[in-house]
Design a protein that fits this description.
Layout: H1 7-25, H2 31-60, H3 64-69, E1 81-86, E2 97-101, H4 105-124, H5 131-150, H6 154-175, H7 180-209, H8 216-220, H9 231-247, H10 256-263, H11 266-274, H12 279-291, H13 293-319, H14 324-344, H15 348-379, H16 395-408, H17 415-430, H18 432-457, H19 463-469, H20 478-496, H21 499-512
Antiparallel strand pairs: 1-2
Helix pairs in contact: 1-2, 1-5, 2-4, 2-5, 2-21, 4-5, 4-11, 4-15, 4-20, 5-6, 6-7, 7-9, 7-10, 9-12, 9-13, 10-11, 10-14, 11-15, 13-14, 13-18, 14-15, 14-17, 14-18, 15-16, 15-17, 15-20, 15-21, 16-18, 16-20, 17-18, 17-20
């Protein structure tokens, strides 16, 4: 095994082992050592993510040295880098731990590493009871999240997601705010239903594909016995669509998300809303659409209308919120609609824009949850009506919050802009009327975001709020500042250098969708692959 093939196994194993040590031996080791173990677990996936990101960016730019250095990584196909295989004795079932990254999974892998580090820093330096168990469960989530996007085998793709969900429920139930246990129960019911539907879809795909393997690369070499648009293909796609859709809070299966995030401890909310929630979207893009193109053709219009419900209906509900954390929870659900719309377009530009927006939204919503907790730590409330004028005492916190809010609204200079721009261009070709409805969401997001900023940080403070100003209220602290810098800095890095991700996405899309039959390409005016060997529409210009 080459040295670069160790990057992904280490990114998964180190946080898992660190979490295991903290859970089993945390009470018996010194606090400084425990903190060092946690740091190691959170930092390793982030370092691996940055190394993979730089290597991809240099390789697709044609740097000869990097091309030569990574040549040994092509274990299965030129599409995947950093590949490695581990046989756990289930090879006869087509189940082996196969790891690798392509242009679609790389942004998600980077997202998991960066958000995991930011959430970890905040957790390590935040006072809480039973910190060793708290850090250990968070590390399990990071390990599972990294494993999801590094897995090439569909069994482990599903396994790592379920592994990451279990500690999420525990964290919300034991360390969550008011209503934490009821929120954890509701999340468990919804997400278990979604997980079961998606599992049935994956098993049906395994059975009917003829590949007799869960290896994604092997499955792409096969097609369903019946042709595109067949009843079998449609049913399997429906299982995956609604299974993944529930996990991503597709309207109207969304009610678990806002209450769950409002009750969750901040690092858990950052990891779930920022990273784990992208599992279903990634599954549709990487698995369902390329392997079941006929099903996508038949269900695409339904998906588009449900996604529009996320944007408009949930957007209206977001504007009605007066609780900051509930507003962010509804906002997260709303923005999933844009990503679903990008997928529903069935075009290279839409799919690529969806990947970029998944990446960008994960960073921006994690930053907003972090900064909302910073506001709460100073005001002891999430209620807009009880706030005002916080900028007078915390101008740096106000600046970070404004930046994160504008990033979420798609301001140029942040990665969110490129994702939304690509999706809207693709959506216009798909349906101008739906584009008009989706554009309404841009206005909605600007309204509720800027209203929150104005009521929290500007204007005259309320009488109750004024009492805080007479004390020792402090501006943003290092434990809050550095995670925010990591998240917003990454958003700006991609905002000013989008080709560092978009080139890899452009490279991967023809390989992922190369077996899509022409009959399945009637849904959008811009097909996934316009013609054999024809160039795929590019996502963003190189600055």
């Amino acid at each position: 095994m080459t040295s670069d093939a160790l990057i992904l196994p280490l990114a998964i194993a180190v946080p898992f082992l660190a979490g295991l040590v903290l859970l089993v031996k945390g009470r018996q080791i010194a606090p400084g050592l425990a903190r060092a173990v946690a740091w190691t677990g959170f930092a390793t996936p982030a370092v691996a993510a940055v190394c993979a990101w730089v290597a991809f960016a240099l390789r697709v730019s044609g740097t000869p040295l990097i091309e030569h250095a990574l040549h040994g990584s092509y274990a299965h196909t030129p599409e995947f880098l950093f590949t490695s295989d581990f046989d756990a004795g289930l090879g006869f079932l087509g189940i082996t731990l196969q790891l690798g990254l392509n242009g679609l999974s790389l942004p998600m892998f980077v997202l998991a590493g960066v958000v995991g580090l930011a959430a970890g820093i905040y957790a390590i330096y935040t006072q809480t009871d039973r910190p060793h168990a708290y850090w250990g469960l968070l590390l399990f989530i990071v390990s599972g999240a990294v494993g999801v996007f590094a897995s090439v085998n569909l069994f482990y793709f599903y396994f790592f997601h379920e592994f990451a969900l279990i500690p999420t429920f525990i964290l919300i139930g034991w360390w969550g705010g008011p209503g934490g246990r009821s929120a954890a129960l509701e999340m468990t019911i919804y997400l278990t239903l979604g997980a079961m539907l998606s599992l049935l879809g994956l098993l049906a795909l395994y059975y009917h594909s003829g590949a007799h393997s869960f290896d994604l690369i092997t499955m792409r070499a096969w097609s369903l016995p019946a042709g595109p648009g067949s009843g079998t293909e449609n049913k399997i796609f429906a299982l995956l669509l609604f299974g993944f859709g529930i996990l991503v809070s597709l309207w109207p299966f969304h009610s678990w998300a806002p209450t769950g995030y409002a009750a969750a401890p901040t690092p858990a909310a950052m990891l779930h809303a920022g990273v784990l929630k992208k599992f279903g979207l990634y599954g549709l893009l990487q698995i369902a659409v390329p392997l079941l193109p006929g099903g996508m053709s038949d269900w695409g219009h339904t998906l588009a209308w449900l996604a529009l419900g996320n944007v408009v209906i949930i957007g209206a509900a977001t504007m009605a919120q007066r609780d900051l954390k509930m507003m962010l929870g509804y906002s997260s659900v709303m923005h999933m609609g844009y990503i679903f719309l990008g997928i529903a377009c069935v075009s290279a530009l839409g799919a690529g824009g969806a990947v970029l927006l998944m990446f960008a939204h994960g960073l921006s919503i994690a930053a907003l949850f972090l900064l909302s907790d910073a506001v709460f730590q100073r005001t002891r409330t999430y209620d807009f009506g009880a706030m005002g004028g916080l900028c007078q005492k915390a101008p740096v916190l106000a600046g970070f919050f404004v930046a994160a809010t504008l990033a979420g609204a798609g301001l140029p200079g942040f990665a969110n802009f490129w994702g939304e721009f690509s999706i809207f261009v693709s959506l216009w070709k798909y349906s101008p009327w739906m584009t008009a409805g989706a554009a309404l969401g841009l206005i909605i997001s600007a309204v509720y975001g800027l209203r929150a900023v104005s009521r929290i940080f500007y204007g005259e403070p309320s009488p109750a709020f004024q009492n805080l100003f007479d004390g020792t209220l402090k501006d943003i602290q290092p434990r809050e500042r550095w995670p925010a810098i990591i998240l917003l800095g990454t958003l700006m890095a991609v905002g000013f250098w989008p080709s560092s991700l978009s080139r890899g996405i452009n490279e991967a899309l023809p390989m992922v969708y190369q077996n899509t039959p022409p009959a399945a390409r009637v849904l959008a005016t811009e097909p996934v692959v316009p013609a054999v060997n024809a160039p795929v529409a590019k996502l963003a210009p190189t600055p």
